[in-house]
Structure prediction request, 130 residues.
Amino acid sequence: MENYLIEIMIAMALLEIFEASWQRATTVEGMLYNSYYYYQKSIFLLFLMHPTFYFVLFVSLATQTLNFGIVTILTLKSIDLIFKVDIIKKHFVDNNLDIAFGGILKSHVESWVYLMGLLLYLPILFLALA
Prediction:
């Protein structure tokens, strides 16, 4: 297992960088619009644009590991997708988003926010597999 740990971590890092790159925008609304672009084509395409969820699921099955770390990553990724789809639907499809939330959508997103996936999920996956 130790032989594959480095390769798994590199693959996870590359997939996280891929996810961060296509979601990158200057505002929260811009991030959501990038997701909405794929949502318009197909909701399944939006789900496929989050490959780290499927990668962690695959790693869990391949290594026969299902512990707190793996469950934490899968739970956080699932919650992220569910909220993203819900907000996209309310804002872009139904045009029925709370006015208070509108101010949040206009807020600036710092560039380090896109590294949160790397900083959060990689250590958890490493600890789950080590």
